[in-house]
Amino acid sequence: MKKRLLLLAVLVHTVTLVFAQTPTKFNIKGIAIDSGNAVMPFATVMLLQPKDSTLVNFGRTDENGAFEFKNVKKANYILKISFVGYIPFQIDVKPVDGAVNDLGQLKLKPIAKELMEVVVKTARAPLNIKGDTIEYNAASFKVPPGSSVEDLLRKLPGVQIDQDGNIKAQGQDVKKVTVDGKSFFGNDPKAATKNLPADAITKIQIFNDKSEQAKATGVDDGKKEKTVNLELKDDFKKGGFGKVTAALGTDERAELKGNYNRFDTKQQFSVLGLGNNINQTGISRDDFQDFRGSQANNWGDEADFGFSSGVRFFYDNDTEESISIPVGGRNFQGFSENYAGGANYNYDTKKTKFSSNYYYNQTQQLVSKKSERENFLSNNNSFKTDEDSYQNRISRNHRVSLRFEQQIDSLNTLVLIGNGRMGDGTTKFNSLQEIYRNGSTTKSNQTTINNFNEFNSTAIALIGLYRHKFKKKGRNFAASVTYNYNISDGEASQSSVNELFGAPVGSIPANINQINFTNSPRNLVKSSLLFVEPLSKKFFSETFYNFSLRRDAVDRNVQTTDGIRIDSLSNYYNNDFMFNRFGTNVRYNHKGVNISFGLAAQHFHFDGNFARSKNATDVQHISRDIFAWIPASSINIDLKNNRYLWADYTKEVSEPAIKDLQPIIDNSNTLYIRVGNPNLLPMSTHRAFVGYNMFNPGSFTNMFFNLNYGYNINQVIYNQTVDPVTLVTTAMPTNISGGQNLGSYLGFGFPLKKTKSTLNLNAGTNISKNLIYINNVLNTTRNNNYNFGFRLDLTPSDKFTFYANGNFGITNTKYSINTTQNQQIFNHTLGAEMNIALPAGIYFSSNLNYRISKNERFGFNQHIPILYASMYKILGKAKKAEIRLSGYDLLKKNIGINQYAYQNFVSTEQTQTLSRYFMLSFTYNMRGVSAKMRRQGWF
Amino acid sequence: MIVYERQEFWSKIIGQLTYLSNEEKDRVKQTWGKNDEGWKSKTKMYFNANESLLTNLEEASEYGWSSRTEDYYIYRNYEKEKKIELIEMLGKTYVLEDSLRAPNWKVLNQIKDVAGYICMKAVTEDTVKHQKITAWFTGDIPVSGGPERFYGLPGMILELEINDGDVVITASKVEFKKLEGKELALPKLKGKKIKDADYDTIIAKHIKDSIKSYRNPYWAIKY
């Protein structure tokens, strides 16, 4: 640019020769000197437009402090000279008659040394120069938390505060302190400076204001009063929001929910509550995020280091509730009534983060179900079970969670987490099962079950995490300790009556009339260590050690209704599981290529004691040691232009579930008896995965592809033996190898017309092979699934949007022992969503979900269209309220239908569920209601 | 050589996207706002009296994961008033060759210290992205360069702020050493050839399309 000036000068020079007569150009020159009259070489000289300070030209002074702008256009300019340590010099330049405007010597004043040192160098605050006065932002001065503005003022150069708190600035008394330009604190300037916390202030301005008298009279008396103005921080990080929705509907449907959140720079408090009988069991992901605020995502809380795969614990009780707050309602079939409420408090600073919350929820679920199940035996025999059942389950849970994170210093971090849950509930279950043989219409057996179960459970999970970064970049250490305690206590009364038609009397399974008392405590202690070492710039090694010790005990007492203990069904056991794993991983990372290979040695030790009762002497003992090598590898490559390629291979080893290991008989269902197998081996699975995806943000096109394969070794399957007379099935877990599955997926999305319509296509296959023994004959079930889907988004304007999607799936199931049962299942879904904005803030939105299930072998052909429509109006100028009329399942077709085809059976279930109802709802949202015309998300 | 550190404050940026509801903005603010220390990335620039070349600085992350940094080469020759830029964006690589055309800077009366240099303040506006640009430049380094695509002041720009702190680019290291010659060499220029005007059109079109589709345009281009 400097050169340009010269080039320009040469150019203009020739031009001036031609147009010598018209003096539209002139030169500006001068000499920069300092206060000691010494010349200032190499100072920056700028020529600005007076209107808005736009830079017109610039240059530097030479060794003699001289500068010259040649042949600049005749106009008014501001000339500015700057040099380190000096107040930038500024002068107005007017065109002169001659060809040169010589400004002569221009004197630069030095910036006070104190200001330079304290403000600019130490506090790094910008200096604002207005003529001869200099202002600066006081927020750059660090004072300890809790300091008052007075403490802050003391730090500022040129400000003195005496013992009484009187303020002097640049030697003059400060008469007035204003906040945001207003005098809040009367006439006492100390009131503000002593009482306001320093961290509420963003800026301090010290300036000369006109005297009060001058302001009142409008006559400037020339007196200036020193004034301090404090600018409060803008409330960027402070706020509160909340919303409440109340709804009433037909069929006694109702919903009430609300939440409120308040937050400032350090703290956040939120409450929420909900109650409904429309199957909304949990809070939504968004509501959860609002509730937990800054603590909604804590990525670093994972306490298990090393390969993510490799070990998996099975817990016995599938219905056990999670220890954390349940998010997102599951697709529940039946009727439910739900209540929940909670409060959350977070305290966050850069170094310390604390979070606590309490959450209560209560659910009552009514499930009324009819099911039909056909079991295939060898020799083309089969039997069909019809079941009519009713379940009423009530559960209540209190949850408390605490989290504390402390950044001890820049290298050390400590995280402590405590979660607890206390719950209780009851389950009532009634069922009538009827069995028909080989397609006959005459009933062969019948069982009536009446069970009632009461339970309570407590769970505690404590985690401590410590992370340390070494001075050497890339070297890291982490350690974790976890303690889990769970206990559940249950009392179940079971009654079932068996009837067998046309069979010998003696072979009828016994009726059951008993009470089970079960107490099962579980303790788990585990610890993990991780050490990351950079081997070179591109190679890292990761070494980890995992240890866990788990002790479970179950005390099950079975009594008759008269209180007499039934020894054959009672049992007591305790197990100790010890797990040790040591492994290492070498990673190569460079320019978007990440490759890792690792190997771990893994050892299980299992000790189990089984007896009929806690005090029994004839204790059976099982002890097992299992050792395995676990390899893991992965490749991730970032290719150019948003394309990614990755592949990985892992081996997972999972220990058998305790329920499956213990040699006891579970007869809670008299027609389906489970027996444990103490000889079970752990199951391992080899998994491989390959994927590719690309996204072009310019053309809005994307493509995904992936392929996955799994092979099971010692898979735990339930071998079934069916008694030919009573048709009672006895299932026993056994290991088998050879089950496998292969899946693939291809997706492609592109705009048909940019911003107006997008089409996404996808196709996939899933091929699996499952093995099972039925009456000691090996049966292989092959499932071949093919699916295809599309999604079309039409968003022509802000007033109308339309989305359509379809998924088509075919599953072919083939059985090796009973080929006549081979079948083909079709599952198709079609969906459409439409949103229309009508005038006067009224919106219409509707949604259709059409499901088709077809299975020709059973003559099953079901079409279920679920239609939802709603009309809503956004009220008020601030758009904070909404009134809405909605209709759910307008066609009254919601019948919970599920179809399964598995290793040796097919089943169809139909659950009575929430169907057509209308609802009128009112929502008030403090932050405004917005019409949902568009779907969320970027893709 | 100057190393610039760029910090992007997404909670602040998202807070300004007009098409998101207040509730969503508050959610982002509440979840991330408090601890938003800015998404950091670095660039480095080699320069002599007449030329400068700025590229993305690749650094192995602390936990040893490397993601590929996009091609980004900004070359300027102040003497010949020429610039060559190799920019990968929107799924394509562009080669921009044009003459230097500095924006209209307004020089203001504020000074502050950046990386040990006393800098003066200058402001301008990005007319394509409609952003307020604040630059701090120092007369002590008499090269009209700066970070990313900014230049044209009477000294090196050491700090740059977009929209009052949405993005802050600060020189974290300023070092003077003899260049060996290779530092200012551009890689092979492969990509779609464009001019300044084309670049502005591409950016403007992408922003327009994205806003129409209710997307955040700045996932795919630099803010």
TrEMBL record, chain A:
Keyword Signal found: yes
Cleavable signal peptide: 1-20
Keyword Signal in record: yes
Protein species of origin: Emticicia agri
Protein name: TonB-dependent receptor
Keywords for this protein: Receptor, Signal
Annotated Pfam families: CarbopepD_reg_2 (PF13715), OMP_b-brl_3 (PF14905)
Transmembrane regions listed in the UniProt entry: none
Residues annotated as domain Outer membrane protein beta-barrel: 468-767, 769-924
SUPFAM superfamilies: Carboxypeptidase regulatory domain-like, Porins
